[in-house]
Design a protein that fits this description.
Blueprint lengths: L5 E6 L11 H10 L5 H17 L3 H4 L13 E5 L3 H5 L1 H10 L4 E6 L3 E6 L3 E6 L8
Antiparallel strand pairs: 1-2, 1-3, 2-5, 4-5
Helix pairs in contact: 1-5
């Protein structure tokens, strides 16, 4: 078996668009709904700001990267070598657990067709698992 090169933290329930939302989308969704405590909101804001200041947002480089028509189901994965990005996810996972939102860690050596890549992450269009799956 090939060593996993990528890791993703995602919900356990598919979104309206048919994919599993990532950890940041899930926590940001709780914030939009006004469900975070003051402490959780401070954590979210501080850490979202840190990610924004230190790492590239793929949408800033390619505004079409998450376009559902051009790249259906596109999702981001961390490269396993991105320890600084990955270690900050724990706080987001704690928030999700406190609100009963299911989240899982997925690892893969081939998560899909890479449509964006930088030093820390990739965005992929996932492979179809079975012939009839969309």
């Amino acid at each position: 078996m090939q060593e996993a090169l990528y890791v993703r933290f995602q919900g356990t329930t598919r979104s309206e668009r048919g994919h599993f939302p990532g950890v940041f989308a899930l926590v940001n969704g709780l914030a939009r709904e006004g469900r975070l405590t003051d402490e959780q909101e401070r954590f979210r804001r501080t850490n979202n700001d840190w990610y924004d200041a230190n790492y590239i947002n793929p949408s800033d480089t390619d505004p079409t990267v998450y376009d559902p028509h051009l790249n259906p189901g596109a999702v981001a994965w961390f490269k396993m070598s991105s320890a600084d990005l990955i270690k900050r996810v724990d706080g987001y996972l704690e928030i999700l657990a406190a609100h009963g939102v299911g989240c899982e860690r997925a690892e893969s050596s081939e998560p899909g067709t890479i449509i964006y890549e930088d030093q820390y992450q990739v965005v992929v269009v996932p492979h179809r698992k079975t012939l009839g799956e969309t």
